[in-house]
């Protein structure tokens, strides 16, 4: 027995050493920076405690940026949830070729992580004033997109760019939940005279509802924290909250990093709350389906 204890201890230590780099990485790049932001949100430059940084969040510029960020996040989360559900439902339960599912899932995995400067450049090259689609629509069909009021650097343009990664992310999130729908549920509904629309409205959607709400919360958090795509695509045309935060932390114009810490603290609270809602609803949906 005594000889087994050192062996088990050595085995346990070797297992923990395997995950030690992960904990070190999380501590250095996640935990410590978050603590630094939280402390900075409640302190002055001289180190004294204050609530003035949080009260400054009520200023007009920051409030307008917050409202704009909330609008973009809510719109893209709503449209992304609906669009992703339709795509996933059509591919998984719509009777389409099985090979199409692999193609859609592969594309969704790539597109959900395609953001920042590359995504902004792709949209500028496609829908910019000299973009491919813009030029083809003008030369082939006589349609001037920008004469109709469309502007890639506007709210609608940024929303379109966000949907490029929001819809694929929704497909990845909701696919396991749709796979969890049992085939006998549809067979029973059809045997009772229910149509396909009635099955989705009265059986499938109520079952998927917690998963849909959780996915909506995750998409909201994903859009609310996005900054690189907005900066590269719109520049200073749209002042969303992450761009204001970047300007405050960089300090080259406004030079108030502690106000930036307060903005970051508010963003952490909002996105953290959304992620907690997503995790809770996902666990509830998984437990119900089991």
From TrEMBL:
PROSITE patterns, sorted: ABC_TM1 (PS50928)
Keywords carried by this UniProt record: Cell membrane, Membrane, Transmembrane, Transmembrane helix, Transport
Gene3D superfamilies in the record: MetI-like (1.10.3720.10)
Record's bilayer topology term: Multi-pass membrane protein
Cellular compartments annotated: Cell membrane
Membrane-spanning parts: 12-39, 51-70, 77-96, 116-137, 198-220, 227-247, 259-281
Domain ABC transmembrane type-1: 66-280
Domain of life: Bacteria
Cellular component terms (Gene Ontology): plasma membrane
Cross-referenced InterPro entries: MetI-like, MetI-like_sf
GO biological process: transmembrane transport
Family that this chain belongs to: Belongs to the binding-protein-dependent transport system permease family. CysTW subfamily.
Listed name of the protein: ABC transporter permease subunit
Organism: Paragemmobacter straminiformis
Organism lineage string: Bacteria, Pseudomonadati, Pseudomonadota, Alphaproteobacteria, Rhodobacterales
């Amino acid at each position: 027995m005594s000889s087994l204890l050192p062996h088990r201890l050595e085995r346990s230590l070797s297992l923990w050493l395997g995950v030690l780099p992960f904990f070190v990485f999380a501590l250095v790049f996640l935990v410590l920076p978050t603590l630094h932001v939280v402390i900075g949100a409640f302190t002055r430059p001289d180190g004294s405690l204050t609530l003035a940084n949080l009260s400054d969040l009520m200023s007009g510029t920051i409030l307008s940026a917050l409202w704009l960020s909330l609008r973009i996040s809510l719109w893209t989360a709503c449209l992304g949830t609906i669009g992703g559900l339709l795509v996933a439902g059509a591919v998984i339960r719509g009777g389409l070729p099985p090979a199409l599912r692999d193609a859609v899932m592969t594309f969704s995995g790539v597109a959900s992580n395609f953001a920042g400067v590359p995504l902004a450049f792709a949209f500028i090259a496609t829908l910019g004033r000299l973009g491919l689609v813009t030029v083809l629509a003008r030369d082939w069909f006589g349609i001037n997109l920008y004469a109709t009021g469309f502007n890639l650097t506007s709210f609608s343009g940024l929303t379109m760019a966000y949907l490029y990664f929001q819809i694929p992310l929704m497909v990845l999130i909701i696919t396991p939940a749709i796979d969890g729908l049992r085939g006998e549920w549809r067979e029973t509904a059809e045997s009772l005279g229910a149509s396909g629309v009635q099955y989705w409205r009265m059986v499938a959607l109520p079952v998927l509802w917690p998963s849909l709400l959780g996915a909506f919360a995750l998409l909201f958090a994903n859009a609310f924290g996005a900054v690189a795509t907005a900066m590269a695509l719109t520049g200073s045309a749209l002042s969303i909250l992450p761009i204001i935060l970047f300007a405050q932390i960089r300090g080259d114009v406004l030079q108030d990093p502690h106000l930036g810490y307060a903005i970051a603290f508010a963003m952490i609270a909002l996105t953290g709350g959304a992620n907690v809602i997503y995790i809770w609803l996902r666990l509830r949906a998984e437990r119900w389906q089991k």
